[in-house]
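Blinded run. Sample ID left blank on purpose so nobody reads anything into the name before looking at the predicted structure. Input follows.
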Amino acid sequence: MCRAECRGMCRKGVSMYEVAICDDVPMNIELLEGCIRRASKDLLDLLELRVHRYTSGEDLLCAMKDIRFSIVFMDVCLKRGRMGGEETAVRIRAADQNVVLVFLTGCAEPTTSCIEVQPYRYIKKNMPQTEFSQNIAASMRKMVVNANIPTVMGRVNGENIRINSDDIIYIEKGVKHVRVYIRKMSMDYYKIEACKDGTVIKCMDKMSDLYSQLKPYGFGYPHDSYMINFRYLTSFKNDLFRLEEYPNEEFKIARSKAVEFNNLRRTFFRSMYH
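Blinded prediction complete.
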């Protein structure tokens, strides 16, 4: 099933969370959903969940074109379909860097591929029930924390859209408005059609206001003309750097902003690996 019944935005002030379970054993899905709902009830009375069940990686990835999942519980030893659990997880992480990814397994130890997609938990299906429930509850708490990621209001093709900051590669100052550049993989989710002359997402907020909002969430302001999301920094040398999806463009760090920008850059990447 590829169409979303409703798209939960997983943000501060929004109480609907989209939860995906991918396992090729229906009984496992049933048991896990029960555990998730019990953990959520204990966590927050007002927490609303919509649980989506998938028995193959292909079905889950198809659904991600329309649904922004808050958390995905993935069976690593998935056998149904052409795609295994690890390959599915790699593609999930490529499509959404913010979703909480939780691995469940009854047959395997973590591999390099598993670790590289940065799962929040690696849960053994045969661990004691109390310990299993504690891990599920911890995963749901992490999901709620992630929901506080800020958004930016933009306008494209005559329509207003609210953009998850994790989807933003960089923001550029224009003459009349700010321009927001997002990942190509996110275009489908926001229902944005690419134009031959480039799809421009306009934002009427001031750069200084946006920076104050986004600075605690992995953004740097290297130049008066633009700010960037450190998640998409691909190369860095002296006062020049490049960004994902813009390999032929060099961005310059202004001398007056270099100290703060580099301190934020180092802090961000330390937090990613500790």
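Unblinding after everyone has recorded impressions. The chain is about 30% helix and 30% strand.
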